[in-house]
Write a structure and sequence with these properties.
Helix content: 40-55%
Number of domains: 2
Structural class: alpha+beta
Number of strands: 7
Radius of gyration: 22 Å
Strand content: 5-15%
Number of helices: 6
Largest sheet: 3 strands, antiparallel
Strand order of the largest sheet: 5-6-7
């Protein structure tokens, strides 16, 4: 989540430079190369495995511990509960099994090869487990599917949009205008069209005018909301004639 937060913050100056046509072709090539190196979905599945195994290792050792006071690691220090001292061995082992299954379910909803993550269908996987808030956020991403760095779906979609935006600006520098479709960027400027991390399909591209375009992610509801009165779509958009526009 630290990586995602720092990465999301770094996209704002990149967007501002693109909106002002301030980046050179070599700079855009370097930025695009760096952005393409981030696979946040793979990082997410690795984090889930590591966090689940770390908790299970601690919980399994508790029944045999000689410590009369149980205190578990948390992001802000330690958390404890007096009732934990009374939990029988089987309860801790059941918690290990429950967390293992919750981690497996979280990973099951991520298709790293396709670049897609789907919301989990069950929100009760972690009920009753002694976990801190960051761990809950990690394992239950369906609670955090808004436009927030805590959402791996939003973060990966934003990185993919930034990668495409760099390639689109390189195309404009070469030809004087933006392409009619993203496929025109392949293979000269991109090996493939980056996907929307929610739909798993190529990013939606709208050429608004000769100096403006929109890259659209379908957002939490998984639907292209262009024709609806309200929208939760995730957009990368600006007009190159309006440097003060906001992302």
């Amino acid at each position: 989540m630290r990586v995602q937060t720092l990465l999301m913050r770094s996209l704002q100056p990149l967007w501002e430079g693109l909106s002002q046509q301030a980046w050179t072709e070599p700079q855009l090539t370097a930025l695009q190369h760096e952005l393409a190196g981030f696979n946040l979905l793979a990082d997410y599945t690795n984090a889930v495995r590591r966090v689940a195994l770390a908790h299970i290792e601690i919980w399994r050792a508790i029944p045999d511990s000689t410590n009369s006071f149980i205190s578990l690691p948390a992001s802000g220090g330690y958390m404890s509960e007096s009732a934990w001292q009374l939990q029988p061995r089987a309860w801790w082992f059941e918690s290990c099994i429950q967390l293992h299954n919750a981690g497996r379910n979280a990973i099951k909803h991520v298709d790293v090869a396709a670049g897609r993550i789907q919301p989990a269908t069950s929100w009760s996987d972690l009920n009753g487990l002694p976990l801190d808030s960051p761990t809950l956020e990690l394992l239950q991403q369906s609670w955090w599917w808004e436009a927030s760095p805590a959402s791996v779906a939003f973060a990966q979609t934003s990185v993919n949009q930034a990668t495409l935006a760099c390639a689109l600006e390189r195309f404009r520098l070469l030809t004087g205008g933006y392409p009619e479709s993203l496929e025109q960027l392949v293979p000269a400027l991109l090996p493939r069209v980056a996907h929307d991390a929610v739909s798993g399909r190529p990013m939606i591209y709208q050429l608004v005018g000769p100096t403006s375009f929109t890259l659209r992610g379908v957002g939490p509801n998984g639907i292209d909301d262009r024709k609806l009165a309200s929208s939760d779509d995730w957009l990368w958009t600006y007009s190159t004639n309006a440097p003060s526009a906001k992302k």
